[in-house]
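Data follows
____________
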Amino acid sequence: MLVVLAAVGGLQQSTVPGLPVVPGVTLWSLPLIVWVRDIAMAATVGFILIGGVLAPRPDTRSGRLASGSALVWLGALVAQAVLTVSEVLALPLSSAVNTALIWPLLTQTTVGTVILLQCSLVAAVALLGWVILGRVTGSILLAACLIAAFLPGFTGHAGVVEGHAGATVSLGLHIVAASVWVGGLLAVVDYSHRNAKAAQLVLRRFSAVALVCVVILGESGLVNAATRLDGVSPLLTSTYGAVLLAKIAVLCALIGVGLRQRSQLRASDDTDLGLIDEKSRGLGREWRASPALA
């Protein structure tokens, strides 16, 4: 991520005579904090989805992991607010840690309002996920997480241009789908290592969810790309087009891996069913051949 940002000039200080310069540490720290926020967001969504909704019975460890991820998410949001003040006002971090500057950002700007709403939702998830994660509470917490994950869609390029409500919604759905897919994979791996007997059921359920996420991810990505690109030629001539093509290639590779895993899972299920059927036939032959059982 940092290599891509550096290549497109996103980490270079812009010097304009008469205007203050954004500190270099802010230029590097802000994308890193956003990355940590997104990973923690995906992990929180995934652990609640698997442990509270898709698992045969509520999983306590998944609830604790979701709570821990939510705390990291909350800390990243707080750091994002401070770094945003430092970036917008070109202040050193020591001066940006000032409630007189942070509060106006949270209450008078779209970015700040989104951060404030996310903090409220994520704090509730961190508390309730640790205390209890039942079927009902798991669904409620999952809804809260998905809303919090959707909100950054209002702060992207689609959210600051009038008449792009459709692009704003698609960007929010794009983030939600990515969070469910990536976080769900992480949670499935953790759950399967601890619950081998229920792993197959959870994998099948999540496989269906992942398929929906892939469709939403692809469609919403195309909608958002259409708002940024004027025709097909910018795909080959612009930096944004190059990044988009790279993302499409990675997505196609991930879809291929997912399809292969899905086919292996089905083959494993067929093998298990065959073994069960063979054992049943064997027991039937033993029952008929045994005078005592007969």
In short: The two ends are 70 Å apart (CA to CA). Residues 158-163 have pLDDT under 50 and may be disordered. DSSP finds eleven helices and no strands in the chain. The first helix runs from residue 2 to 7.
